[in-house]
Design brief:
Oligomer: single chain
Distance between the termini: 8 Å
Structural class: mainly alpha
Order of helices and strands: HHHEHHEHHEHHEHH
Strand content: under 5%
Number of helices: 11
Low-confidence stretches: 1-14
Mean pLDDT: 80
């Protein structure tokens, strides 16, 4: 929800006139989203929630799509104390499921649906896809380190207590040792999910990931 500030629910529910206007605008924007009914069936949002989300999305992205540079600009507003550029790049790729270089309203809704209302399994699948940078079905130590460094860069130097320079690498070493069950140098989705579900410390550490979405 932090990605698009206008996406937050408003205190007054949309009235029938706004609903009609939304339906008209849904049909006239340059990139026309799928019918609300279809998105309602595919996501875990109600039609009213989708209308509110769309109103916020179109305020930030009138064309109906957002490219990576715009995505980075929006995301950076929420982490002024650090550099969110690299993490926003990885996050953009996770939302851009068809890898066409832009995030549509449909992409945004489906990703948000998983992150906010998905099952533990669905959220972990999404997280695995984020860490699997080259999308080959495995997470290497280097990929995990790239993500972790990006998170630490984004959080900035103002954290308390002050983090040591090698903190990302130490974090990854701990993660990877627990996850790479067969010690083959890569983490599969099954290993990732099993480790996260069974290890309370890893689940608590995953909150760092959740807090920066």
């Amino acid at each position: 929800m932090k990605l698009f500030p206008c996406s937050a629910a408003k205190s007054t529910p949309p009235d029938s006139q706004n609903s009609v206007e939304d339906e008209i605008e849904l049909a006239t924007v340059r990139h026309r989203p799928e019918a609300l009914e279809l998105l309602e069936a595919q996501s875990k949002f109600t039609k009213k929630e989708l209308q509110i989300l769309y109103r916020g999305f179109k305020n930030e992205c009138p064309s109906g799509i957002v490219n990576e540079e715009t995505f980075k600009e929006i995301y950076s507003q929420f982490f002024p104390q650090g550099d969110s550029t690299t993490y926003a790049h990885f996050l953009f790729n996770a939302f851009d499921t068809d890898h066409n270089g832009c995030v549509s309203f449909e992409d945004f809704v489906m990703g948000l649906s998983i992150l906010l209302r998905g099952t533990v399994q669905e959220k972990l699948n999404w997280a695995f896809n984020l860490y699997d940078i080259n999308k080959d079905g495995y997470i290497t130590k280097e990929e995990m380190l790239d993500i972790m460094k990006a998170i630490y860069d984004m959080m900035g130097k103002c954290t308390y207590p002050v983090l040591k320079e090698d903190a990302p690498r130490q974090h990854v070493e701990t993660f990877f040792q627990k996850m790479d069950k067969n010690k083959d140098g890569v983490v599969t989705m099954d290993e990732f999910i099993e480790s996260c579900q069974k290890d309370e410390n890893i689940m608590q550490s995953m909150q760092l990931f959740e807090n920066v979405i």
